[in-house]
Please model this.
Amino acid sequence: MGTEEKSPVTGMPGHTMRSTCLRIREMFLLWYLITSLGASGETAETCHSPVYLEFGKIGIIQCSFPEGFHSVQWYDADDIRGETPIITYDESREKHGSGYSSGEFDIHPNGSLIIRNVSIEHETTFTVTMFQTTQQRPQYYQVHVKTVVKPLHNRPVVSSCEDAPGSCYIEWTQSTDVSCQIEHSRPAINITWFLRNSSSDIIVSVRHESSSDAATHTTVVLLQDPSMYQTNLSLYVCKADDPIGLLEKKETTVLFEKTDMDWSKFPVDEILGERYSNVNLPCSLRSPRIVVWKKGESVNDLVTTVYDVLSEDNLISSMPSRWKLGINGSLTIHEVHITDESTYACHSYDGHMESFNVYKLKVIVYPSPAYPVVEECPSDRYCVLEKKSDDTLTCAVRGIRPVVDLKLQSFPPSSLAVSIINPLRTVLVHNNLTDVILTVGLKFRDMFLTRHTLECIVTGENASMFTTLSTKFEVIMTDRIQPTKILSVSLSTKTPLDKQSVFRPPWSYVIVVIVVVSSGLTIIGCITWAVKRRQHPIRHGEQQQQTRQSYEEVNLEDTPLMSVDKDLFIQQLKHKYGVFYHSLTSVPYVEKREHPVNALFLDVGIDHLLDGSWSHKTSYREVNINFEAASKMCVIEGDPGYGKTTLTLQLAYEWCEGIPRTPLESTEILVLLRRRQLVNSPDIFDAIKRNLLPSESTLTREDVEKIFASSTVVIILDGFNEYPDRDRFLQSILSDMARIQKVPKFQLILTTRSSQLTKQFPPNAQKFKLCGFKSKARNRYLQKITQKNSNTSVEIKKLLRDDPIKGDICEVPLFFALCVHLEAEETIENDFSSLTRFFRHIVSCLHHHFKNKLDDDDVDNFQLYEDHHGELNKIAFNALKTSGKLQFKRGNLDKFVEYYVKVGILQKEERTVIDDTPGVLASEHIKTEHIVTFQNEKFLQWYAAHYVGDQLSSRSTQDHENVLEILDDIDGRRFPSFFRFVCGISPDAAEHILGYMRSTENGDELAALCLLEQRSDLKRILDSVGELCSKEMMLSPTKTRFVNRSTIQMMELASTNDVCNLSLSLNDSIVVADEETDELILGTDLRLPILKTLHKLWVNTSGHTFSENDVVGILKYAKKCQGVNEITFSNCILPFSIEDETAASIIREEKLQVLWYTTSGIRYYIDADSGKWKNKNGGDELEKECYWKESGRRIWRNVPARGVNLG
Model:
């Protein structure tokens, strides 16, 4: 064993020696401290007191001692004489004491006391002594500790509002007690009720109820102040007096509303809202403080839905996502749905008075199409029907809300020539919408009247909710007596001309003869006037000849001054327009070659909005410019690439050349301005002077104004949707013309994109729409372009008919022209499996076509621009997300832009900008800027898809947030090609696209279309197509042609690969069989190919009559498909019997079941042996009397539309 260490001085053991020293030292310190207490008993600022420590948590009594102190001692008593420290922190920085050894206390290196677990017993006074040095007297501090307990809730809690975050709404009656309480706090927290008005909070009387347990307190105050009943709306606040900060929120705001109000005594205003429009419901008070909105089926069952205290930031209820409250308390419902149709009530209060508003919101839905449909009338042109005396007429509106009446009448209504007999009205309701069908017979009162105009118009008490819905058409009675035939028979008889044999026409025909003679005399008079007119110094022929001469060659001899100015003005305009319409470049680009507009323009017709419905005019020349009409405005709308600008140039060409029978034939002055020509122009006359007249012209702005005052004027504003401050400029033109012309003789023609129509157009403005290239327009264009090569025309027709991808894209005239010209050069492939492949080939052909015109040295330079277009991709993507203009940096992209402009992908226009910035150089005061855009939105989507493909291909499939950030704000239904392009360009990015699409509403259909772009992964495509096609498919004219054709493409894919059995519903489509191919033609040009796996076919065609040949054609199609076992007809009229042997043979051989649903709900099937219809339930034959009874109604059972919507 080791020896014990001893002191060299005393000889005592070492540890005994140290213990003795410590005791002596403690006795000395105690004596020293006692003497110090007598000298200093106040607590300094070094330790703050009192200190609030939370029960059950670690607590720190914070003190700030000077650095380098010698020692610290803590006592749990206010009088430490005779007390032992609970913890000591000595000069060696060691801790000791009973409190430390027990684990109850600890000490921080800065001397602060740490209580490891605060309890009630720690609510006492602690004393601390600090020795800076052993030679100095110690410093003495006392700290009072208060233990606190946070209440159960972090705010005052009001009964019935326990879950409300600081504010709530209560419907209060006299018998309701409302309490505010704070539960289980330490110390107790006082709370008070206040009535809040616009200027201050007023304390109200309350009843207190408090309780306590061993450690905590609960405070309750009951609100019983009857003064709150002075108004129906009151705002109260329960406030807590919480000086130590136990609560996160010290007040709770409550909105009280009396519930015993009788809402039926207030008037109800009817508000009409068209489905998917925005509806605003106002409150009558201008600046309300409190607003409460209620909703219910009637005023008797209103329920509070939204409330808002406009003076309180936090007091507003949650509301449906489509609802928004305005700053004046008005309620706006965005994109109104049918389910929003209800009674709404607004209860508002501004601090002085209350207001009550009640509304009945009625949601109206325009029919589809938005006009009455006359059976057998084509939708693309004016209708002329041939009928017999015993025939009936049927017209209908479908999908309208609310229900309306239909009336078939003569036009004009005052005419008595035709009587309407045996009207039968049928109303069918489905999905909260209504079909109204009217079937009538006709009786012509005049035996010689064979042709008459009729009108089918919406009537009834609800008709006023809509703009006039009517359709006009003509009826020719083919079995009536023709007056010309009677005349010819009478004149050719050999019998004596006695009273019985002479034909005596009725007085109406005598009147007709008189009118004809009068017209002839009028024409003779006009001819005589024209002959005299030729003596005028400026003859019509000479004027046309002078048009082609320089505008300086004006004959001033014997001509009034104003006439000279007008003639000079006209010639200068024509000179300017000649530059416009003789310098068009073609797409694809042909170097150093320009074309006149009449060589490129094709008249494909135009749609005209009449009485709320669109009617097709076969030529734009049917547009009537009537200077006497009340409406002074004509709007021509169309999507990009549909030829709006080309049409305006064609009109300018015809005016300049004096071509007869055109819309501007009688126009003296034509003004054609484009967007860039109106920048910085204060009015129309300044714009004309700056942009249309030569710089050396002697005509002033005032001269132009005087010429306008005495002339018939047409002003064309091309690209009006892009005009700066367009609405102000439009009003300026109208005001100026009304000011200078005593009798207004002018017309405004505006061209604009369909999606950007301004609200400033007057209601009576004429509206026209360019609708692109349909089948007839395509044929006419082909005849014009391929006159010398008929084989090319045939090949292109077949190409578009067989390929749905090309067929739909080529409805845009720009792309159709591209396809035609590229096909003529044999650069278009004939087989494309995806939209991406087709569009990639179009872009490549454009580049190839342009480079063929270049020298060999230039090709390599431009090849870089074709291969590397990353900057263009990014610019296109930003423009796609923001719907803004393309932003190009000057300098390094100039040549790049010029190349893409010449290729035909971009287009550039100029505009003049005036810079009035102080200090700007004179040379920079007026300068020209170039605006660059894509030729068509498809190009924009194409290059934006490249950018997204690059961005997404490097992302993880789990990186959902970044994917959403990239794709957010891009509407898949507006830009379907964009998503398909991304999937086709980048297979890696396609995984993100498909996941994103499926997470959106109705995104499965768009995802399926995107799958078609990935032909490399055929198995995956077939699995997805099979899953989608296993449901019942539907084709309908309510969907876009692009979606319908894509649906057919998927069914072809499923059928070819035998993925699944198909079930198809044809809704509201006219179905005709092609006798050569046995395919079905739906509508005008949608073809349904042979589908080998088609098992069930449903033909649901409203009001259509099928002939026996039509039915046989559909049966032949079913036979070609080989797998069809059931065909169902509904909503149509079939022959009384099918006696064709071919039909019977197909039904027997294919074991085909042919069903027919009638209006009475009876289901019939065709018996192959007899050709008769038999009841599916009992087997009884359909009798002729019953058949004619059903046929007279012309209406059949409305079977709900079936199938999956791929649109």
Q: What stands out?
A: The first helix runs from residue 14 to 39. The mean pLDDT is 75.
